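Hi R.,

Here's the chain you asked about this morning:
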Amino acid sequence: MLGKVDFCCQTKSYGLFFKSLSEAMRGYDMFKKQAGFTLIELIVVIVILGILAATALPKFMGIQSGARISTLQGARGAVASAMNIAYATQTSQGLASNVGITLDGISIAMLNGYPAAGGAGNVSNIYAAAGLSADYNTASATAATIFIQVANAPTPGTCSFSYNAATTTLPAQVGAVVTGGC
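And the predicted structure, written out as tokens:
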């Protein structure tokens, strides 16, 4: 029992010593609590965030442009496939070259053996045959040519490809992808 009392008394004296030491050192900066960030710390953080934003933003913009180009190339492939499937379907059914067909429940107007380029509201033409979504816009230069554009491109007119309907002498053609405005 006596050993425990001595230990207790010794720890009380250490507690009093540390309490008196902390009271004596109250005026020193080393023991003050910091209330917030300094102006220099805030400026350094802002500069670091600015540098990160300056390096990340161009990469992000490049990713978006690349995604639009890939989307456009996919749409071009869908149009080319739909054109060939429609031609093969009409030929295999023995239909005349200007008789419409039905693909996956969608009526497709045919012109000289291939899907027509134009159509009111993108109905019954190559746009419908390819199953393109609202991610694309169309613009017609003539009744026989339709331009398919990526809708959210910065300049849709230069992020597009063309589809030229068949004539009596030439088959339908899918133009090259133009990616200048993607």
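The CA atoms of residues 40 and 46 lie 10 Å apart.

Let me know if you need anything else.
M.
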